Backbone:
């Protein structure tokens, strides 16, 4: 299998952390690509129609894309149980969706500053995206700490990668303010070997 990868992508990081945690790194060839909304990667053409990473090319089926699809596939492949069973599965999926929502808003903010001409950047829109992130972090701090502190699952990995991206790109906005329990959990979780090994360099 080939994983189309960028070390700066938080969605790719989710996949890489899962590969570390499930001992599947040796089964995947990592293919580093550079792609942006304005300059798609030629190597992804014909494989991932949205031209986004991560994408997982398989020898026996179509290329998988979207980090949630890839993580579910790899979890099933390893029989790792990162998505739990029965009712607990819905909690994990909801938590992963919340974390990916944080990433969606955070990445939109990054792209606004990086790719839109300065005179066309919209501060109110940036603040609205940050408002979504603030509400999500507050919900994690108030509602999800018991789950985050439990046995390892994909929801925890997704949240940790999302918070790591906030530190990388939007640290000045201060997601930790008012979220002491979440901040303490993240400080501990970020020291896992899988998180250290996948930590992007700014």
Residues:
């Amino acid at each position: 299998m080939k994983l189309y990868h960028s070390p700066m992508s938080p969605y790719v990081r989710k996949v890489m952390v899962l590969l570390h945690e499930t001992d599947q790194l040796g089964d995947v060839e990592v293919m580093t690509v550079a792609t942006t909304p304005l300059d798609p990667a030629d190597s992804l053409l014909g494989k991932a129609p949205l031209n986004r990473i991560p994408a997982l090319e398989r020898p026996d089926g179509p290329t998988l894309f979207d980090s949630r699809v890839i993580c579910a596939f790899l979890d099933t492949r390893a029989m790792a149980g990162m998505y739990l069973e029965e009712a607990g599965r819905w909690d994990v999926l909801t938590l992963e969706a919340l974390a990916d929502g944080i990433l969606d808003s955070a990445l939109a903010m990054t792209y606004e500053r990086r790719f839109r001409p300065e005179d066309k950047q919209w501060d109110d829109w940036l603040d609205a995206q940050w408002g979504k992130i603030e509400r999500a972090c507050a919900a994690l701090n108030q509602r999800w700490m018991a789950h985050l502190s439990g046995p390892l699952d994909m929801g925890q990995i997704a949240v940790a990668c999302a918070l790591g991206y906030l530190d990388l790109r939007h640290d000045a906005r201060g997601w930790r303010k008012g979220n002491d329990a979440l901040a303490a959990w993240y400080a501990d979780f970020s020291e896992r070997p899988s998180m250290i090994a996948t930590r992007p360099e700014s």
Remarks:
- The chain has a mean pLDDT of 92.
- DSSP finds eight helices and four strands in the chain.
